[in-house]
Structure formats: C-alpha cells, structure tokens
Design brief:
By secondary structure, this protein is an all-alpha fold. Helix 2 packs parallel to helix 5, helix 2 crosses helix 9 and helix 4 packs parallel to helix 7. The two termini are 30 Å apart.
Amino acid sequence: MSLPATPAAATLQTGALEPGARPAPPGPVPRRVVAATVVGNALEFYDFVTYAFFAVYIGRCFFPASTPLGSLLLSVAVFGVGFVARPLGGVLIGALADRAGRRPAMLLTISLITVGTMGLALTPSYETLGVAAPVIVVVARLLQGLALGGEVGPSTAFLIESAPLGRRGLMGSWQLASQGAAGLVAGLMGLSLTSILSPAQMQDWGWRVPFALGLLLVPVAVYLRRAMPETLHASPVQAAHAGLAGLRRKRGFIALAVLVILGGTVSTYVGNFMTTYAITTLKMPPTVAMGATVVVGVVTLCFGLLGGWLSDRFGRKPVMIWPRVAAALVTVPAFMALIQQPSPGMLFAVSALLAALTALSATASMVAIPELLPRGIRATGMSIAYAVGVALFGGSTQFIITWLIGVTGDPAAPAWYVAATSVITALAMWRMPESQAQSLDD
C-alpha cells in the first residue's frame, strides 16, 4: 500500500505546502506508517509494564532489605518513579513534537526507552555492584517514565493527522490497541517464564529475559520511525494556538480531558491488578492469576480497534459515554459474582468485561481529545492530559484499592472505586463537544 499522488500525500512526504495551498484530506496510509507508530508504542508500554510483572525479583536483586516485604516495597516505589516522570516527559517531549515535528519526538522517546531498558536488563545486582546498582535502576525508571509520558501525545497526534477522511477513529485506536498488545506479550512472557524456570533461575537471570527480548525489537522500531513522514506542517500553525499562549487558552479543556482519562485509567489499573487480586484476595494459583493479564491484553487489543471503528461510524461521544456508564453499573455486580464463585472462568470473564468496556470508551476518548486541540499544541496538550491523568490516578490506583480492601474488609472495594470514577468521567465526557467531523486545521 502506498500514498497516492495527491496534495495531501505530498504534504506528508515533504512536510510543506505550496504558498496559498490548502491541504486535501489524507489518502490511504502506508502500512509502514502505522507500523512505525504501533511497534514503537507497543515496545515502550511493554518495557514499562514488564517491570510491574517482575517487581518481586527486581526488588530482591537491587533493593535488599531486612524482610522480603521491605524489598518489594522499595521495588514498587521505584515503579512509581516512572509515573512521577510522566508529566515532565509529556511537557518536554510534547513541546518538541509541536515545535520540531512528530517524527523527531517519537525517535527521542524510543531512544530514551532503549537506554532505560538497557539499564534494567544489564545492571549487575546490588551484591555485585553495591549502591550504584539501585541508583542506575532508579535512573532507568526515570528515563522510561519520561519516554512513556512523551510518547502518547506525539504518536496519537501523528495517527489522527495522517488518517484518511472518516477513519481517524480507527487509525487513532491503534494507540490503545498497541498497549493491549504490549500487555498481552508481557503477560505471556511472565506466564511462560514462571512455568518453565525454577524460582532460583527466575531470581538469578530469568526476570532479565523479557527486557532483553524487548531490546531486540528496538532496531526495527527505530528503522520504521526514521522513515515516517511528518504531519505537523500539513497546515500553517497560528501563533495564538501554539506554545504557552495556546496552552493557556486551552487550560480548561485540558483539565476536563484529565477527568475524561480518569475513569479509563482507574479501570485499566484495576484490570492490571486482577492478577495480584486473584492471588491475595481470591487465593487462586499464580499461574491461573497470570492468565487474567493475558485475557486483558487480548480484549484490549480487539476492543480498542472496535471502539475506533464504532466512533467513526456513530461519533466519539456515544462510544465514550455508554461503555463508561455500563462500567459504572455492572462492575460491582460482576465482582460480587467473582467473589461468590472464584473460579478461573469467572476471573477471566470479569477481567474481559472490564477490559472491553474500558477499551471501547478509552479509544474514543484518546481520539477525541487531540481532535479538539489545535495542531500547534496537539501533542503537548494530549501528553499533559494523559500523563497527569495516569500519574495521579494510575500510579495511585493499586495503593488505593489495596487500602480500601484493608479498611472496609470488602473484597468488592475495587469495583466500587471503578464505579465512582466512571460516574465522574461520564459527566466529563458529556461536557465535551462531538469531534468526529472536527477539522484538524487551526
């Protein structure tokens, strides 16, 4: 598949318009353009979430403590460092994408994630290297957080700006679908390694394998991204809609977008928590519990793409709002059923239901937000809204629901948290205008 000889194609290839010309709607997009975005995005999320799956082993390797719990807590705290760095990455790399272009920003994020992953995969243990080992790991997590915070805005902006007319939803859905693919691969990797290797082998070297395999895909992602066209300059950027002035003009919308992202973020991290929940609360075997992660990955991939297609057909707002309303209504009964019948089938069904509703709604949201931002702040505004939303609510979700279960004694506490945040997000979505037919010009 290749770009046709149209003004839009010329714009994508050269990054400039002839004087006085107005860009035509983009035509068919090369598969390599989608692949460049999807492979890089999936790789960055894969590296980030893999840390969470192997936090126990990483803690023992780099953060020795007087008790195993202390070691794990230190490891989880470093996991949180990645969330703290996300807003900074969103601002810095998003600004780069809006000033210099989407392609250089996305090349920077893949470079940062590569250095961060190498730091995790290759650093010797505390026993070998001493205090330098945990310092390197913290720096590596900071780099991963910066990369992920700066990835979402430019990649989502690129996908919708390069999409053919009437297919921005489907193109933009690859943003969330690639996250589902990353979770799926990471889950399968964790399931396979824990089944094949002994606990001693996992601790000695097995946990490093997923990071090393991720590094093998980096040259492919870099090669594809270097060949990407540029979409920033498809139309002139008005000074009032760029930089700090543009962000100030849209600060109310960006704050609203954070609330739109709230519900999906909480649901996503509750879904990621299902493996731990199944082990600690439902007392299921770890191998069965890890299967929930695989289910969530598959469903997010499939329903993310479905959500994009539906939003092109019926509009962004219906696809945003109705699945979120459904999540508010059905999550508590679903958890109640799981608690009463804690079987593998019920665990997978509840995990799939939550992931499906989340993917449908979140996909439409992540397309609508950049569509409603001017081109000159599209990547920065999207990056800030997403990174702040995830840092505030994603990074705290597992702590909050664990605390709620302990304080209330109610194993359905995670479901009540999902329901409450879904109501808030549905109201924020209702206040957003419909963006399906929105022009992407300033």
